[in-house]
Fold this sequence. Notes:
alpha+beta, Serine Threonine Protein Phosphatase 5, Tetratricopeptide repeat, Neuraminidase, 14 helices, 24% strand
Amino acid sequence: MRKITVFIALLWLTRLTPGISQEIHDAAQQGHLDKIKTILANHPEYIEIQDQAGRRSLHFAANSGHIEIVKYLLSKGADIHAKTKANTTVLHYAALKGSLEIVKLLVEKGVEIDIKNVQVTTPMYYAASGGHREVVQYLIDKGAKVDALDREEGTPLHFAAKNGHTKTIEVLIEMGADVNIKNSSGQTPYHAAITSGHNETAEILAIKGASTQAWEFPTLQGDYLGQNKPGSTPELFAPGIISTSERNERDVSFTSDGNEFYFTLWGNNQPWNIMVMQRNHNRWTEPQRVSFSGQYLDAEAYFTPDGQKIFFISNRPKHGTGNPGTWEIWHAERNDSGWSEPILLGSPFEGGFYTTFTDDWVMYFTLNDDLHRARYINGKFEESEKLGNNVNTSEGEYNAFIARDESYIIFTSVGLSDSYGEGDLYISFRKDEDTWTQAKNMGPQVNSFARDYCPSVSPDGKYFFFSSRRYGTEDIFWVDAKIIEELKPDELKKGE
């Protein structure tokens, strides 16, 4: 397994706004104090100017360890408690860099030690993950929680072990960390070291008292992998089991009886694979690749209404074996052994992706950055039709989920003026005359500063699933599907 670094959660935050903001941010990042003084002398208001991620010059200086610039910016009134759009503080960035001087300065000035950002991680998480043992020791001395569980995936000791930081591990244990503490999936720091390939680190943990008993996949029983059901606020789906900080997960699809769960997984040197979990005697199996996935890149699995075919996209060659080709729509059919060999959907759907279906076998999909649908008549799909301007715009629309009764469509659009981030989820409702309401942004209750996409609703209609990069990697979230009804226009509600 690829070593996890603290940079995963922040790598995507790289773009800067143009002009003077980029100049001052670059100066803070590169340590050019004189340039910062010149800029602020002419434009003092730029001290709090933000880039697209909400980062200020103070964040950049802390991220690069430039203590003199941090001191200067604070002397000029920079907000020491400033947060990015991801609620990441200056202390998070200083801990990420491992700059003990800046960490001390910030803590002594009253910055909250255990504050969590949108990724649900504390400064201690960044320090431990990066192996900055002096910062770790200082934060603990000042009251940081040594066994705080970040994202339900682990404590600082888990993340230090996952990255093979033996010296940091020794400090954490000396400072009272529980060597056998378990995360939400039942893994201890010893397991984290083993699964990440850090056997020497695991040996140190064993010497320090860690149990060497092998990790067993947790017992998951009940609907939806036995997870606690969400309310009106989106939550990670199966954190530490499905949604993790070290890999990317997306594309949720349940069979109609709820006994099979499919999703796309990639990361840690693993290509895009379609994974499946099955419920046998009310117990869910560990995720494994479906029989037709693994040799090429595969994603976006979704079932036909009868559950006998599974549609997906793949870059496998169109004719037999050979080098990968372009992404195309394929499907496999159920048989006695599981699934047949994949079959190319072909003309006229070349270049399409993200298929979903109504109960009447109307297929919705993306083609050329617009949303289309195709009816299934007499055993074949008819020529597709592009949805109207209330759904498709001059910007890109993609990855649409269609309600089983075709009453609404949820999709992602990029670049619209009411966007909250890199890509937002929108919803449009179908009228009696087969037209669509003006697509509406699903709002901050669902959308974030990052990319939100890959919508799906459970077969029973109770839960809305989607993928998001708000935590840095792609993760699967779910929320009570009542939010869909709340977004329905009043004129449509009156007719119910």
